[in-house]
Each structure stands twice: as C-alpha cells, then as structure tokens.
C-alpha cells in the first residue's frame, strides 16, 4: 500500500512540469530544495534529538562552496559540487563537536551562534562576495541537456530528492535509526545498550551537513547566484517551522511540511510580515496542540490497555564459565565531599546469583553505576573476566557482556516493546555504519536477522501481546519484564538487576524469581540489588550488605541476616531484616 | 591603555544590557524550566514601546520606560498563558514554541512600526565626562546605574518578599512547592512578567545605543542567552557576570576584528562553553542512572 502510494506520488511528480507555467516551475524547484533541507533537519533533530539550528549554515556552506570554486577557482560545476559536499559535511562535523559536551537548549544556542558566525563571515569576506554575493555561477553541464531551464533542472532535483529521501527513510528504519531514536529518548540507557553516543551524535551532524550540502549544490545550480540573506536566521526558523508542522520525527511529514510552507511562503511573498505572523501563530498552535505535527494527526496509536503477559519459557541449561566474572577491588567513589562508596571489594564467581542489600543511600546503585561504566571510581579497579575494565564507557562494557536494568525503569518511551528488544540485540559498533552507504543490502539482511531473534526473545518472555505497544501504555509489572528481556537480548555474561521487584505484586515477584533462576541456569552471572528480603533470601546464593558506602557483611543469606552489624544497619529493628511491607513503604 | 579603558567602558555598558537580558532568561528558566527564545523579541518590543512613547510625548525617559515595562509585562503574561501546557515538558517543543512567539512579535512590530526602524535621541544629551583622557558618556553611566538598580530590586524581591520566596521554592522543586500550597501557575506567571519587565528595561536602555528595528531582537536575544549560559543557566549572579563577560568579549572582538567581530565572538563562546558547559556559576549535573 505504502509502495503504491510512493510510486503514484513519483509518477505524479514526473508529470508535474507538463501542468505548470515557468514561474510555478521555479517555485516548485525551490520547494524541493527546502524539502531536502527539511529531511536533513528532521534526521538530526526529530530522529536523533540533536537541536541543530545551524542547518541553514550547512546549506550556505554547500552553495557558497560551489559558487567560490566555480567562479573563483574555475573548477567545473560537478567537481565543485563534490568538494562542496565534503565542505558541508566537514562543517557538520565541526558544528557537531559541541554536541559531545552539551545537549538540548545549550546545543541550540551554540549552533545558532555558529550559524550567525557563518553569516557574519559571508557578509564580510571578499572571497564570498560580501553583501552582494556571488553571481554568474555556471550552468551545470549534463550531456548536452540545458539545465538552465527550470523544467529540465526539475528532473535533476527530483532524482536527487528521491535518492536522498530513500536514504533517509532507510536510515530511520534501520538499526542505526533505531539507535538514534533511542539516543533521543534516553542517552544513558542507549549507552548501556551498546550505542556509542558520541559517534552517534556526530553521525547525526554528518547527515545534517550532507543534506545541507546537497541542498546547497542544488540551489547553486538552480539560482546560479548566492547572497547572505538566503542563509539568514529567519530562513532557519522557517525551516524549523516546516519540520515542526510536518512532524519532526517523521521524514515524510518533514517533506510535506516543507513543500506546504514553501508554497505558502511564495503565495504570501508580497505581504511577508503577515506571512511571518502566520507561521509564528501556526508554530505556536502546533507545538501546544499537535506536538507531533501533521504526521501525528495521521498515525494511529496502538492501545496497550488490557494486554497480558504470556508465560515465561525457560532457557536451556548451560554450564557457566569457570572462574570469577566480576571483581571489584578497593573501589571508592566520592562526589565532591560526599563519600558514596568507601573501599568496596567483592568478587562474584561465574554462575552465581549475588544479592546486594543495604538501607537506602548505602551506595548500591552507585556501585552498579561504577560497574556498568556510568561513573568512574575515584579509586580502585573493576575487572570483568579478569580483565581490567575500570573507566570504560558504558557502551564498551555493554559490548563486553555487561547488561543492566535500572531502578526507575529506563525504557525508550517512544519506541515499541519490540524495538526496545531489538536495540538490545544490535551488537554492532557504530563504525559499522559505512555499510549504510556501501552495502545497504548487507544492512537489510542483518536487520532481518535481528527481527527473527527479537521474535524469539519476545516469545520467551511472553511479550507477544504487547510487542507493538509503547512501554508507557503498559502496566508497571510488564514494563519491568520488558526491561529484563531487553537486557537479556544483549546475550550478556553478567546481568545487573537494580531493584527488579520494586512495584511488583506477589505473583509477579514469584515469576521474577523463576526468570532469574532460569537466566542463571543458562550460564549468566546475576547481581541483583533488592529490598525485598524474602526474594533475596530465597533467590541469592550469596549476599553482600552495604551500609554508608561500606561492605558490612558478606556471606550466604541466612548467615548475613543474623549478623549483628546488619541488624544495626537496619536501625536495630527487632527483626533481623525489614519485612516486605516496610520495604514497600521505603520505596520511592 | 586609553584604548583599552575606552573599550572596557563600552563593553561594560553593553554588558549591563546583556546582563539584564540574561537575567530575564534566567528568572523564567529557573522558575519554570522554560527556555524563552522569544525573550529577544520582547526586548525589541520594549525598545520600540519606550522609544515611540518617548519621541511622541516628550515626557521624561523614565516615564517611557515605565510604559514599556507595562506593555512587555502584559506580553509576558500572554506568552506564559499560551505555553503553560508545555512547562516542565519537552525542551525541544518549548524552544520551538517560544521561537514561534518570537516570530509573531517580530511580525507584529513590522506591521505596527514598519520594517525600517528608527534612531532614538540620547535622553541625557550632555558632554561625556573626561577622566584622564578616557571619555565616559553620561548615558553609559545611566545604563549601568539603571541596570544595577533593577538588579538590586530583583534581588530584594526574590529574597525578602513572600512571592519571591515562593518563586525560589518553585524553582527548586515545583512538585514540592505545590504540596506546600504554592500556586505554581501564578508563580510562573509572575516570573514571566518579571522577565518581560527586565526585557523592557534592557530594550529601552539599548534603544539610544543602537538603531531600533524589528530584527534587533534576534541578535540581542542570542547574545543575552549566550551570556546567561556563560554565567551558568538559571543563576542570577551568573547572569550578571555572564552578561558583563559577553559585553567585554563583544567589545574587544569589535575593537580587534572589526567586521568579523560577530564571528570571533560566537566561535570564542562555543569554545568556552565546550570547555565549561555548566558556565561560571552553574552546577555540575551528575547523570543519575
């Protein structure tokens, strides 16, 4: 159905010039350039969540590079175009560097500042023609076809547009696009799943630069004149309005928004102040009432309301590796004056279920954050299978077999349950992305393989009924299970569970114990932070008790539970350890 | 040395205005977590309101400033009411919503005052004070004085009044503030109105220094925003220090790089915030997993 619509749209676009007058053709040509720009902005901002307000500058870099190289250096149009694309991508890379250190509005203001710096340069630099700009860019040669005709140039644009639209759609629907969207939703959790956040952010900016450059080359070929006002901040906001109105996370939505606004802009050219008033009002209304734009109006939501969990299918048993999986040696973590962990030493042998317990604020989650790479310890080492992994980034630890869940659930809210699982399955390094351009069929094959494995995991964890729902539509207990499924999708050798039973009812806790035992049975070592003492006693082989950042007891559960230090740590209750109901009160 | 001091005075004068703009950003941001990209346009409206009234009525400049404050205060309340559904939600949406508002204000200014803009006569037309060869324009002293007064009044309001304390509470934790019986919506509206009033003060002060035109809000807003970020977003002392720092950066870039000053200013800004993203007074945020 979608394919048919696409083909019909392409056929209509192919025949369009026969129905248009010369000026209208020109307007359509300009609109397509805006559409290419909008796709680039949609990819960086909508899909990857990088607030990039320099897109119009990348456009400018592309157009100005063609202009300078053809008129100044005397290169041919197409040679200049290739170099212009390279220049725009490099500009994207440079503007993307701040994204490694800051996000959201901070990134927005820095990229906007860089765009202003670019405009300032072209308005004053002699080589860029100052305020008058550069005219007399040569007509692009094309086997004797006269591309100075708006009609014939249209076909060049159309082909380029379709190719780059296809690339954008391919990227969004591929494992890379999924990782970009995951990064947009929650970069910490994405990192824990093996996504290289810095490289992904740079990828987003490279794409932004590439699309800006392509649009710039087309613009130079069509108008054959460049001047600073085309690349002004006003046009940046127009572009932003296009993407927002269309629906920023939908590539097709961005295209529709761009075409629609480009035509409206043309129609209101004589009353531009009213036009600007119009966009402004529309943008405010869309943002407040239809945050997903036109695309959001069309897409229907799957209801996950009454979905139920299926039974968990046990893993086959496999012998665990020999030796010690995790060794923590003398780890201290300080936050300024506060000592969160003080000289923690523990080692977890392969195939064990280790419990970590302790009062709130005793440093349990901090310990997990150190082991999974979120924090660097102030002192001490962490070893995984005997190899030093201290200070490794979360994604590296993830690729080495450390999977974790989070105390307050970090599922990707805008991705379906299936996509959450698929993210866990994707074990590629981001350097793999050259294949997206070189051998897209290999990517498609890999992606199909992932989909098959995802179905297996979804079936194993009984998630068939909820596979297409978004996590926030699901009850809490199901979300907890999805998070474990996602972690197990990574085929880890060490699984860290941070309060997996929090918020679960009795039956769900029983199922959880069964799942964790089966996971251990399949050869995975499990470390679990838990307040539910009943569960800890029945599930764990060995328990480590933390209090105020120190290990105060370490041993089999029944010994630890009667240890006087442990009793004292839990406020000297008459019980050896808090009861379940007390723990529930302590939650949150 | 004289050139240096002269640049310093120019930088501090503009810095005082940037500091006012930055405080306007910060008070809204810390109270409701909203990054108000329309702030620059509110400054522009303030500049227009004050200068138009001043030139039309020939009343004292202070009266014109009060008129501008009333006008922008109302605009601030309107913007807040519209964007209330987005508070403490998606940053991207808020950012874009406020950019949309900025576009609306700019378009309104073009429709009311025309696209060309006007020059504003200096309200204190006296000779500059000569201090050992360094000429200090009296208007610079006025700007610095008014900015200091506005800062002092704001600090008093935040620390000594009940409404101010309520706003501080909302800034720290809006849910806990609700639980304490603070009307968060009213507190947000107050913050927005105060931000807009500061914008009017900044706008009316900058009018005689620049040429008042509909697009001045863009650059001023970005510079004020950058100043707030340089100082540490949401911190009031940070806004003042950041504003001064940005004014000086701007003045020295203009002195040494002439037409490329904007390029230098923003590249330096990008490098500085990359080295210290939390700004001078900002807190290092720890990612909690």
UniProtKB/TrEMBL annotation, chain A:
Annotated keywords: ATP-binding, Cell membrane, Membrane, Nucleotide-binding, Transmembrane, Transmembrane helix, Transport
Localization per record: Cell membrane
Keyword Nucleotide-binding: yes
Matches recorded under InterPro entries: AAA+_ATPase (IPR003593), ABC_AA/LPS_Transport (IPR051120), ABC_transp_permease (IPR001851), ABC_transporter-like_ATP-bd (IPR003439), BCA_ABC_TP_C (IPR032823), LivM-like (IPR043428), P-loop_NTPase (IPR027417)
Transmembrane segments: 31-49, 56-75, 81-99, 106-123, 152-176, 210-227, 239-264, 276-298
Every ABC transporter domain range: 326-573
Gene Ontology molecular function terms on file: ATP binding; ATP hydrolysis activity; branched-chain amino acid transmembrane transporter activity
Record membrane topology: Multi-pass membrane protein
GO cellular component: plasma membrane
Listed PROSITE patterns: ABC_TRANSPORTER_2
Primary location: membrane
Name assigned to this protein: Branched-chain amino acid transport system permease protein
From TrEMBL, chain B:
InterPro entries: ABC_transp_permease (IPR001851), BCAA_transport_permease (IPR052157)
Coiled-coil blocks: none
Alphabetic keyword roster: Amino-acid transport, Cell membrane, Membrane, Transmembrane, Transmembrane helix, Transport
Membrane-topology annotation of the record: Multi-pass membrane protein
GO biological process: amino acid transport
A Pfam family matched in the record: BPD_transp_2
GO molecular function: transmembrane transporter activity
GO cellular component annotations of the record: plasma membrane
Cellular location(s): Cell membrane
Record bears the keyword Metal-binding: no
Main subcellular location of this protein, as a coarse class: membrane
Membrane spanning stretches: 6-27, 34-55, 61-79, 91-116, 136-158, 191-212, 224-248, 260-281
Protein family (similarity comment): Belongs to the binding-protein-dependent transport system permease family. LivHM subfamily.
Name of the protein: Branched-chain amino acid transport system permease protein
